[in-house]
Design brief:
- The complex is a heterodimer of chains A (681) and B (342).
- Chain A has 681 residues and is an alpha/beta fold.
- Chain A has four domains: 47 residues, ADC-like domains (N-terminal domain of TfIIb), CATH 2.20.25.90; 220 residues, Rossmann fold (3-Layer(aba) Sandwich), CATH 3.40.50; 191 residues, Dimethylsulfoxide Reductase, domain 2 (3-Layer(aba) Sandwich); 112 residues, Beta Barrel (Barwin-like endoglucanases), CATH 2.40.40.20.
- Chain A has 23 helices and 30 strands.
- In chain A, the strands form eight sheets. In chain A, strands 5-4-18-17-16-6-7 form a seven-stranded mixed sheet, with helices on both faces. Chain A has a six-stranded mixed β-barrel with strand order 23-27-24-26-25-30. A five-stranded parallel sheet of chain A has the order 10-9-8-12-13, with helices on both faces.
- In chain A, strand 4 and strand 5 form a beta hairpin.
- With 342 residues, chain B is an alpha/beta fold.
- Chain B has two domains: 188 residues, no CATH class; 141 residues, no CATH class.
- In chain B, 36% of the residues lie in helices and 13% in strands.
- Chain B has 13 helices and nine strands.
- The radius of gyration of chain B is 20 Å and the shape is globular.
- At the A-B interface, strand 1, strand 2, strand 3, helix 1 and helix 7 of A face strand 2 and helix 2 of B.
């Protein structure tokens, strides 16, 4: 007999509902969940095969301890004692900031909440971060500054109501397929689709326009569109005067801009920029959809601010079918940020530097004080480890040895540590460098909540018992805290209890509870009171910050540009059937079979000049590293640009990428670096 | 208000209690009142979760083939497309007909997007207790084309009357045994009026297929190619289809026919699906309901099934002894259809 257990897909931030099929104490299959408001009985290939990695023989079943180059199994009691002892010793000898914690956008809100609380309360450091830093930190910072809330303004379902959908820097069909479905439906309802992307991705097959700008020139492109809108008087003067501030500064900044110059920078013909601007500005409701093509730049925050400018300029905020809609990468990257697994924010985006807020949270947690200065962010942690300022690191569910930029540097950092704990479901490339490895149970084996990209807080439900001796991450953290004499602040026996504490310090979640979240649709934040229905569209009457604020932005080139030695722009991304460092998809036979190995996309003209044949091995070299991989000769990329998926450890794109950071959001520039190519004999 | 559900529940409870079956498969309430999930039930207590609303989020034939134990006796609450799916997979030896106890529900269509608790009748619908004229646009597209409201292949058949009455008819000897333990009166129900449904089906088939058939060949190809352009090869259509039963599927990348990792996949992907299921398509619509890119695949398969059926005088899912054309056709038959082997 089988049971169908409603829960949430563990892959992207769309937050689709799935039914895990459980029989004989194990999860055997995944089916779509019709009642779920995001996915409505449909899934993508990752969702349909979400269960495949759960019982892979590589699953970690017991704690492990390093012995030379290999690992030995140890018991939980011993493992917890060892970890607690090492963390205490490091803190006592080198101070709390000599420890750093990496939470995960894959784990639940409850896991992330507890790890940041552990870092701040038990250790006394703000050195807690997670991979949101690497994907949408520029969104959190940029939309926070412009609107007062760094999250998707609208809901996935209301994209259908758009008159124009402007997709920029998002391969929506392959990375958020169940969001792409709404774009398809919008188009069936008559919407016009504008795609701006350096690559000829699948959306281009049905988009009305495809602006193929050079990687890293988004600000120029968006400024060009705004310049045209102002020239033609297509801006929404009423909205601007009632709802926003700082418009004059934007007007001034754009005054001297020439579209001919924009054409030169972006490589997009002026006429196309004008036509796109016209379409976007004239539709009744225009919706912007973006992802890492916007955020993963040293100008990531600038890019996001430019999109906010464009939406405010045309009054496309606060109504169905419009808005600025970041599509977040991981299942719970939104939630990991919401609950404070960030170096500068306590739960609910309350700045650690804000004394009043810090005191309030300290009081709620029953501690005298909390650390006041922002901690090291994800990439900064690695730098600090290399410099010897961080001595011990605790990594929960992340795999920076594949997913961080410049992984040669990451390896150096992790090897420089005195002590590394990795808590994961598999022995990842990162876990292989650990001193102690703690086995976590998978998402299918536990309860808790994930928060999807449209701020939808949703319950996951346990479909099977944890495999072997694996435990939920939150339970491991509670054990550790107990061992370190902080058990009173971590006396939790269920995720519901953690949630009840979490909502008290996370204003956006204040009105939620597990009981209220029992409905298939969950609840969208902000949900300030127990009788509040949740919020599907932000900034309806006024912006979260009061008035929306224009931030004029001037185009800056990427940190590293092609030159004689490194003549190509490398841009990186994800592909349909793989996920990040492949620790899950690489162990899912159906998914892995689709695309089992890495490659580099090269334009046919470039391939001809280089003498590279399709499927031939090539060497790709940057200032940071060299990898060998197979060429795919295709016009999906323009001449002068090459693309690599970053999933594959054996041909890791992130050996090449540049860890240069956005000055505000500290997000690294995964999307642009300079490389050289040559054939491999 | 729940219609007829108590009667169906009563029949199933009796069958489970008397060990006539080991397991009951039906749709029932999930998380909340409106959430409907498939249920495999062995405990009598769960029987009262079963619903009879006009909403079917998957093919029970598929779920039985995929998760059921062939050697167990199973009672399945079926609509005619579920029953027809079971008949087709029985021909493919995926289920043992002698172990299936089919409790049929007459079905005049189901809704694709749920708007409350919905019951569909021949010419009207009830939404959250309020009776209103039937809005054909609310029906799943395959249901509008369906000409089989009565599950004649089920052992018993329940007709839900708009007023809430439930008329039960017995179709087989097995059906008699199924009802023996229930306190449900068997009624000599007047035959259902299927003429109106046949008319509706003809009208929608003409509309859905006619629009396409009237296209010039090139235009028709372009239409389908542009639909397939959106395909992200999730295999959702295959995995929802009751007819697709192969353990190893030639569409998977390691079989060498369709390249892995390319989106949209080559058109051959859809051509293979079409030739594999087309002749036996029971128009359950689950492929289209599962498609994340809203490709009208059910229309395509149903259209081909109708074409093939008219040539070979084959109607899938009605008669377990009538085998699909591909297993029956010989050279002589092909010659009769005008195929010239020259």
């Amino acid at each position: 007999m089988v049971r169908f257990v409603p829960t949430i897909c563990p892959y992207c931030g769309a937050g689709c509902g799935i039914l895990l099929v459980a029989g004989n104490g194990a999860v055997v299959d995944t089916r779509p969940w019709s009642e779920h408001p995001v996915s409505e009985g449909k899934l993508c290939i990752k969702g349909y095969n979400a269960h495949e990695f759960i019982y892979h023989p590589d699953r970690l079943k017991t704690p492990l301890i390093r012995e030379g180059d290999s690992f030995n199994e140890i018991g939980w009691e011993q493992a917890i004692k060892l970890v607690a002892g090492k963390l205490s010793e490091t803190r006592d000898r080198n101070g709390p900031d000599s420890l750093a914690f990496m939470s995960s956008s894959k784990c639940t809100n409850e896991d992330s909440y507890l790890l940041q609380k552990f870092a701040r309360v038990v250790i006394g450091t703000n050195n807690i971060d997670q991979c949101a830093r690497l994907c949408h930190m520029s969104t959190v910072v940029g939309l926070g500054a412009a609107f007062g809330s760094g999250a998707m303004t609208n809901s996935i379902a209301d994209i259908e109501e758009a008159g124009c959908v402007f997709i920029i820097g998002s391969d929506t069909m392959s990375q958020h397929p169940l969001v792409a479905r709404r774009i398809v439906k919008a188009r069936e309802n008559g919407a016009r689709i504008i795609l701006a992307d350096p690559r000829r991705i699948q959306v281009s097959r049905f988009a009305d326009m495809h602006l193929r700008h050079k990687p890293g020139t988004d600000v120029a492109l968006l400024n060009g569109m705004m310049k045209y809108i102002l020239e033609r008087g297509l801006e929404d003067r009423d909205f601007i005067s009632r709802r926003t501030e700082g418009f004059e500064a934007l007007e001034q900044a754009l005054a001297d801009l020439s579209l001919d110059e924009v054409e030169k920078i972006t490589g997009v013909p002026k006429g196309e920029i004008e036509a796109a601007a016209q379409l976007y500005a004239e539709a009744e409701a225009s919706c912007i959809i973006y992802a890492m093509g916007i955020t993963q730049h040293t100008t990531g925050t600038d890019n996001v601010l430019s999109l906010a400018n464009l939406a405010m300029l045309t009054g496309n905020i606060g109504r169905p079918g419009c808005g600025v809609n970041p599509l977040r990468g991981h299942n719970n990257v939104q939630g990991a940020c919401d609950v404070g697994a960030l170096a500068e924010f306590l739960p609910g985006y309350q700045a650690v530097a804000d004394e009043q807020k810090r005191k309030a949270v300290a009081q709620a947690w029953g501690v005298a004080e909390l650390p006041a200065s922002p901690g090291f962010t994800a990439v900064e942690m690695m730098n600090a480890a290399v410099e010897g300022r961080v001595k011990a690191m605790y990594i929960m569910g992340e795999n920076p040895m594949v997913s961080d930029p410049d992984i040669g540097h990451v390896e150096q950092a992790l090897n420089a540590l005195d002590f590394l704990v990795v808590q994961d479901i598999f022995l990842t490339e990162t876990a292989r460098l650990a001193d102690i490895v703690l086995p976590a149970s998978s998402w299918a084996e536990r309860d808790g909540t994930f928060t999807g990209t449209d701020r939808r807080v949703q319950r996951l439900r346990q479909a099977a018992e944890p495999l072997g001796q694996s435990r939920p991450d939150w339970a491991i953290i509670c054990e550790l805290a107990g061992e370190m004499k902080a058990g009173d602040s971590f006396a939790f026996s269920s995720t519901a209890q953690i949630f009840d504490e979490m909502k008290k310090v996370t204003p956006q979640y204040a009105g939620m509870s597990f009981a209220r979240l029992e409905q298939p649709a969950g609840l969208q934040w902000p949900c300030p009171r127990e009788d509040h229905p949740g919020t599907s569209i932000l900034h309806v009457e006024q912006f979260t910050r009061g008035k929306g604020k224009f931030h004029p932005v001037v185009y800056r080139a990427a940190a590293e540009n092609p030159d004689k030695e490194f003549p190509f722009i490398l841009t990186t991304g994800r592909i349909m059937s793989q996920w990040h460092s492949r620790s899950m998809t690489g162990r899912s036979p159906t998914l892995n079979a689709e695309s089992p190995e890495g490659y580099v996309e090269i334009n046919p003209d470039d391939a001809r000049k280089l003498g590279v044949a399709d499927r031939a091995m090539v060497e790709v070299r940057s200032r940071r590293g060299t990898v060998q991989t197979r060429a795919r000769v295709t016009d999906r990329v323009a001449a002068g640009v090459v693309f690599m998926p970053f999933h594959f450890a054996e041909a890791a794109a992130n050996r090449l990428t540049n860890a240069a950071l956005d000055p505000v959001a500290k997000i690294p520039e995964f999307k642009v670096c300079a490389v050289a190519l040559k054939t491999v004999k | 208000m729940a219609k007829c559900a108590e009667v169906v529940q009563d029949i199933l409870r009796g069958m489970l209690r008397e060990r006539l079956v080991d397991e009951v498969v039906a749709f029932g309430r999930g998380l909340t009142g409106s959430d409907i999930l498939p249920l495999f039930i062995t405990d009598e207590q769960d029987i009262d979760r079963i619903v009879t609303t006009s909403y079917c989020p998957s093919s029970l034939a598929k779920l039985v083939a995929r998760y059921g134990d062939r050697n167990k006796k199973m009672a399945i609450v079926v609509r005619s497309c579920d029953a027809r799916g079971l008949v087709e997979i029985a021909k493919r030896r995926q289920v043992k007909p002698e172990n299936l106890y089919l409790v049929g529900i007459e079905c005049y269509g189901v809704v694709r997007e749920k708007r409350g608790e919905v019951y569909i009748f021949a010419d009207k619908m009830e939404v959250d207790g309020e009776m209103m004229p039937l809005d054909e646009a609310a029906l799943s597209p395959n249901c509008r084309r369906c000409e089989y409201p009565v599950p004649t292949m089920a052992d018993i058949s329940c007709r839900i009357e708009p007023e809430g009455d439930c008329l039960v008819t017995v179709n087989t000897e097995k059906g008699k045994a199924m009802l023996a333990t229930a306190s449900v009166p068997v009624q000599d129900a007047p035959p259902s009026d299927v003429a109106a449904i046949k008319e509706r089906a003809a009208r929608w088939q003409e509309k859905d297929f006619g629009d396409i058939k009237r296209m010039e060949p090139g235009e028709r190809l372009d239409y389908w190619l542009s639909q397939f352009d959106r395909c992200i090869k999730c295999y959702g259509c295959r995995d929802a289809c009751p007819i697709c039963v192969c353990k190893e599927c030639c569409l998977e990348p390691d079989r060498g026919l369709i390249k892995g990792g390319e989106y949209p996949p080559e058109t051959l992907f859809h051509a293979v699906r079409l030739t594999h299921v087309g002749e036996s398509c029971v128009n359950c619509g689950q492929c289209e309901a599962a498609c994340p890119m809203e490709i009208p695949v059910s229309k395509l398969y149903h259209m081909l099934s109708k074409e093939v059926g008219s040539i070979f005088n084959y109607e899938p899912g009605l008669d377990i002894d009538s085998l699909p054309p591909v297993s029956m056709v010989d050279e002589e038959d092909l010659l009769k259809t005008g195929v010239d082997f020259g």
